[in-house]
Amino acid sequence: MPSACIESKRVKTFRLGIAKAIPKFPNDKATLQALEAFSLASLLIHYNNWAMRYVPGRPRTVSIEPNASSDSRWSTLNSEIITFLDKVRNGEDLTPHLSLEPHTRGYTPASAQDRPETDRWADKDFLLNVMGYHHFHLGPTVQPNGFAVRTDDLLFARVSRDHFTVVAIFAHSVFERPRSPTDTMTKERERLWTVFDEHSSRGVAPGTVYVPSVITTSGHSMHVVRLADDYAHVVREIDPRLDDFEYVNELYESAGVPCPKTLNLKWHLNFLDLGLLDATLNTFFVFRYGPN
């Protein structure tokens, strides 16, 4: 929905920058204008939905679930897995091992159309939104195009800022969705749901009703929606104070950085970390850290 509030120049620049950053399909003027018409909170839903598909490079501890280590493919792929998990522990860039889709398919207006044939998941990662699992290709070689060699067998993991939990190994058939209620799932997809149900019910007493994940009617996870609302709230609360030199001076002092005479603070998102960027001093004041 279009923004109804008066924006400062900083916030407008931030909002339009987000609209430009999200990969669009079709990648045309109409799709860009559709994104630019959203309020900051609404636009952040689409940004978070897209950015959540990446994994920022930072060192993480690693744990391995029995469902993964007991798989016969664990031995077959052992060399590739060790190499990949070393990258995780060292905080190396994992983007080459991720899906190619987020690079070009971040948002499409078609996913929001009110039609029976509308595919709500066209610009979303179903398994990430519903289950919280990232998947990684295990090709040890990064090609000239910047992506690791694509592999049929994939490593699924839950990723936080500090930890990387290997959930299981699955073949690509895990992504095949039944086209109708009467179609059966592939064996790999059945196994995925079994693994997810097991993880979701751990520690839950028998007979207890629980909801493992909440998805909105738009296909976005409730977590993404709430994150967007919180980020928009932070911007609304902080932005008016940036014209107060005393507040800004305290901001720099708290970071141990001398406050410049000429201020050039810009709202900025580094993956899912929200804050203010002083590009001149290469200083990023973080107000919210992202989940991963």
Structure description:
The protein is an alpha+beta fold. The protein has 2 domains: 13-51 and 218-292, no CATH class; 56-199, no CATH class. It contains 10 helices and 7 strands. The protein has helices spanning 9-21, 29-36, 40-51, 66-69, 72-76, 78-90, 126-131, 187-200, 222-238, 245-254; strands spanning 61-64, 134-137, 153-159, 163-171, 265-270, 273-278, 283-288. It has a 4-stranded mixed sheet with strand order 1-4-3-2, sandwiched between helices. A 3-stranded antiparallel sheet has the order 5-6-7. A hairpin with a 2-residue loop joins strand 5 (265-270) and strand 6. Helix 1 packs parallel to helix 3 and helix 3 (40-51) crosses helix 9 (222-238). It is globular, with a radius of gyration of 21 Å. The model has no long low-confidence stretch (mean pLDDT 94).
List the SSEs and their pairings:
Blueprint (H helix, E strand, L loop, with lengths): L8 H13 L7 H8 L3 H12 L9 E4 L1 H4 L2 H5 L1 H13 L35 H6 L2 E4 L15 E7 L3 E9 L15 H14 L21 H17 L6 H10 L10 E6 L2 E6 L4 E6 L4
Parallel strand pairs: 1-4
Antiparallel strand pairs: 2-3, 3-4, 5-6, 6-7
Helix pairs in contact: 1-2, 1-3, 3-9
